[in-house]
Every structure is written in structure tokens, then in C-alpha cells.
UniProtKB/TrEMBL annotation:
Parts of the chain that traverse the membrane: none
PANTHER family assigned to the protein according to its UniProt record, in alphabetical order: MATRIX-REMODELING-ASSOCIATED PROTEIN 7 (PTHR21845:SF2), TRANSMEMBRANE ANCHOR PROTEIN 1 (PTHR21845)
Signal peptide range in chain numbering: none
Domain Matrix-remodeling-associated protein 7 helical: 7-68
UniProt name for this protein: MXRA7 protein
Length: 69
């Protein structure tokens, strides 16, 4: 019976608190994955503009600001 120890406590810390606990490599990897996920989301939104509506460059930049990008 193994006991798992988590370095982070999901749901208990805010994003900035996680960032301060991460190594430089972990933070870079997290940012890379986040950029890839957002790119995939925006591609899907462009492909399905009939569902999501048209998004201007300004709209996209505003959304990216929410993610510190």
C-alpha cells in the first residue's frame, strides 16, 4: 500500500502561489502546455465560428491577457 505525497495541494493555492513553488523548468513546461492548449482552443473556435461567433484580433488579445500571455 503506497502513500502518495503531492508537492502541490490542488484547490488550496492560487495560480501565483503555484508559480512561486515551481522550478524554472516546471514553470517553462507549464507555460508551453498552456500556450499549446490555448492555440488548440482558438483553432477550434475559428473552425466553428458558426457556434462560437467571429473573434477579432482584439477579442483574442483580451482573452490572452486573462491568462498572463
Amino acid at each position: 500500500d503506497e502513500t502518495f505525497s503531492f508537492k502541490y495541494s490542488p484547490g488550496k493555492l492560487r495560480g501565483n502561489q503555484y508559480k512561486s513553488m515551481m522550478t524554472k523548468e516546471e514553470l517553462e513546461e507549464e507555460q508551453r502546455v498552456q500556450r499549446e492548449q490555448l492555440a488548440a482552443i482558438f483553432r477550434l473556435m475559428e473552425e466553428k465560428s458558426d457556434t462560437f461567433g467571429e473573434m477579432s484580433e482584439g477579442d483574442m488579445k483580451e482573452q490572452l491577457r486573462l491568462y498572463d500571455i
